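Batch job 17 of 40 flagged for manual review because the log was empty.
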Amino acid sequence: MGALVDAREASEVRRIIDARSPDAYIAVLYDEARATVTISESTTPLLVKQLRATGAIVAKIDIKGHIHSPNADRKIHTDALVQFCSSIPNLQYAATANLALSTYDNRGKGDLVSSKHQESITEMVLRSILVN
């Protein structure tokens, strides 16, 4: 589900979502006014109603599965997947020094990915999708 809010509504929206944790969480924070919230399908209608009551513009997006999940178990599984991919060259993205175009991370600041990054592109991508 996507939500668009102004700064005044943002704290109320966060309070509503945090009250439903761990069943609801902000999966992607685009900027101060836009976010993607992950929640179970059965509880979506009530959350949509509560968020719209604050003035938020809400759109339901049907995605199956847990993405960008802060769950501790998800982190353990992601660590194992990163280690597995690191051990098989065909499951790895190119090294940063070999990228044809400038590439930016999606951790909220849009930093340029360079050889200064401690993690590989593969690890960055997996963690971005699964746990960050």
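Reviewer: the log was empty due to a logging misconfiguration, but the result itself is present. The longest strand covers residues 24-29. Unflagging and moving on to job 18.
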